[in-house]
Hints:
The protein is mainly beta. It contains no helices and 15 strands.
Amino acid sequence: MREETALCYTEHMEKKKEEGLQTVQPSEIVRLSKLGEGIRVELDFIDALSEEEGILIGNTCLGFVKAMSENRQVETYPRRVFRVNAGALHQYVYTVGGAVKYLAEVEPGDLISVFSESGVRSVCVGRVKKEQRPLWRLELENGISATVQEADSVYLAGEEEAAAFVGLKEGDVLVSYPQEPCGRHKGEAVEEFIEEL
């Protein structure tokens, strides 16, 4: 007998403040560091994402930047309307209900929160793709950081429009999503002291 699952669906939600997130905050890039080769994670969703949609990724529980969908044409790579290059596998990704998951642990069937200017929806992951790629760490003035692939298909949410990572420099401004102050244990917010850098 086939087991039905309620996990693989998309759920459109009204524009609202998501659980655990503070107000969206523009923040200047203060450091860009080349890290070398590492495992990069791509998430392929079961629904098409618009150009303005993306997911929240970050190195620590301080908060996130928005990695944009690959629904755009670039010189070296064709448009992939279902894909987000989510960066290094150690990072957090924001999921439903204010929880986070390590990218290394995301599996097909997981629901991920997809953000746009008009709101947030939950979309099911159809495939997870991991490959060895060159990675960079970017740090913002508010302490939020992320580790992303050096590729012209990688775009992050900028203050006015999506910005190609390969064109970013220190002093440029990205949109950041600070979290409410908390520690994280197994993806859930906990009230204890945990320091992450």
